[in-house]
Amino acid sequence: MVPLAEAWDSGASQWARERRQACANDLGAERSLVAVTARANRFKADQDPAQWMPPSADAHCTYLADWVSTKLRWG
Question: InterPro entries recorded for this chain (predicted)?
């Protein structure tokens, strides 16, 4: 959900290696990992919601809720 580069830029760079690794491999919350096409993943890249939103307006609220949930989960 949250690209690793964006997480790094927003604070994960200060975490211990073990915590960064746990975040990168987190399967403990449904919202942490969302399957998308390779094309969609390339368009999103390492952008946050201020820079990229899903093409479908119907998905915006869910995307934002998942993003915020993941950010809060990892602090």
Answer: GmrSD_C
CA distance 15 to 12: 5
For residue 49, what is the DSSP state? T
pLDDT one-digit tens code per residue, 47-61: 999 999 999 999 999
Using the Cα atoms of residue 51, residue 44, residue 57 and residue 10 in order, give the sign of their dihedral.
negative
Q: Tokens at residue 51, please?
A: 């820079």
Phi, psi of 64 (to 5 degrees): -65, -40
Q: Indicate the pTM of the whole model.
A: 0.84
The total of other beta-carbon atoms located within 10 Å of residue 25's CB is: 10
Summarize pLDDT for 11-55 with one digit per residue, the tens: 999 999 999 999 999 988 888 888 888 998 899 999 999 999 999
